[in-house]
Amino acid sequence: MTTHPNSFNSPDSKETHSFDDLYEINISRRQRNLNHIDNANFGLFHVRTCIIAGIGFFTDAYDLFVINFVSIMLSYTDSDYMSYNPFVRASIDMALKMSAACGTLIGQLVFGWCADRFGRKRMYGLELSIMIVATFGSAMSSGSFAITTWASLIFWRFILGIGIGVITSEFATVSKRGAMISAVFAMQGFGILTAGIVSVVTLGAYRESIVITDKYIDPVWRIILVFGAIPAILGFYFRVTIPETPRFTMDILGDIEKAERDINNVLKREDPLIQYNPICVIDGPGATWQDFKEYFSKWKNAKILLGTSLSWFVLDIAFYGIGLNNGIILQAIGFGYSQDTFSILWNLSVGNIIITMLGTIPGYWFTVFLVDKWGRKKIQLMGFMVLTGLFLIWGLCYSFVKQYMAIFITIFSLCQLFQNFGPNATTFIVPSEVFPTRYRSTGHGISAASGKLGAIIAQVGFLQLKDIGGSNKFVDRLILIFACFMFLGIFSTLLIPETRDKTLETLSNESPRIIVNRKHKRKASG
């Protein structure tokens, strides 16, 4: 039988399709698959995906914020630490807290790009592997003639940061997407809380020994650090069993058949797949430097990346400026002051737990329940506005407020509440929604890396400036500086779109760009 050069004869059917027909067929199949994802009922797979991805965020937050306790504990175990001049001590503390942020900045850029090139699933498994190795390396850090414990720990914290590098957004239904992403992100709150609880429990177990000698703080901080590997190990298997996201499979790999199978499997759809001849190959637009420049050279796309990056940058200056220095701030107001080492460490750990319970965790979950009702942009604007006011009040009334512990803790907790029921959550959610599939991880990585740049600047600024005029005398001015950055966040938010109730394809500012690869046309025509 002779086949027309511009037609295709299916072995499964006597019907003949032209290549233009195949193009329309595959556009239709792609849209049908997207509709299945966007309009699916919220089910067990969505819960499972949130839990698995959430384990990673739990571990990320635990590992990043546990350094609050560890850095103070290390100062009691290093016999030479107090003999260093104040500048050296401040530099060591700064390097220890900055190392993970520096690694994270690099990891977010590199893994963001790699996830768009090689797939989300592959990169998430690699990230967890790096985190597990680096966590054990951190816990086993020790000094020698050639290297100090501090230097070894700083190195492993940097490697850990690289491993802390969006998959949920691509599996989420439109109506529940904000809640799903924010629920995953909210696991950070439990990670921060667990860091405090593990510190209290471990300190309690070694209480009698620490009272005798500070040397027993050494196993305490090592146990606290190594605990971070436990959820990572538990989550490793489950995280790599998540299938590749259907959008990546269709739009980047060009395999509509596999995407359909994955969708039917995860959504437990019973309708059989419609079989099409495999001669039709779909070429999705790949992530290339030329295409990247072309896409972001358009102001409507560039302004979104600018808005997400600036918002995350200004937010993290305050979020990490305060978050990684909770212990210093609590010490500055004399929270739980005591003469013995155990009581100091115990009180600081308990203080962090109180603030996390009062402000951090409620803030995350307010976002989970309201983000799909209020919208991302409204919550982010509200958060930046309220934080501007709170930081102004806190900074201007600092001398008065710190005399009254209850008032101080209330303001501190409110700041934590509106950071998380506000820009800390939405600066994560929006970048995972507004970019096309081929640049979703890259765009999110650039935005997140901008935030980590803000975190690094915050650490350098906080630790170098806080003692101007005396020990912790400049903290009130630093809080006022944070207020200025929160004010800037109001304007950066105006650059981003509202993403509520919109599909990821609508938000990417692009029409479908699937094309039929004609390289097999000669085979079809004989």
UniProtKB/TrEMBL annotation:
Species for this entry: Gigaspora margarita
Predominant place of localization: membrane
Biological classification of the source: Eukaryota, Fungi, Fungi incertae sedis, Mucoromycota, Glomeromycotina
Cellular component aspect of the GO annotation: membrane
GO molecular function: transmembrane transporter activity
TM spans (from-to): 51-74, 94-114, 126-147, 153-172, 184-207, 219-240, 304-324, 344-369, 381-401, 478-496
Keywords tagged on the record: Membrane, Transmembrane, Transmembrane helix
Keyword Phosphoprotein annotated: no
Compartments it resides in: Membrane
PROSITE patterns, per the entry: MFS (PS50850), SUGAR_TRANSPORT_1 (PS00216)
Pfam families associated with the record: Sugar_tr (PF00083)
Recorded topology in the membrane: Multi-pass membrane protein
Keyword Transmembrane part of the UniProt annotation: yes
InterPro entries: MFS_dom, MFS_sugar_transport-like, MFS_trans_sf, Sugar_transporter_CS
Domain called Major facilitator superfamily (MFS) profile: residue spans: 49-500
Name of the protein described by the UniProt record: Phosphate transporter
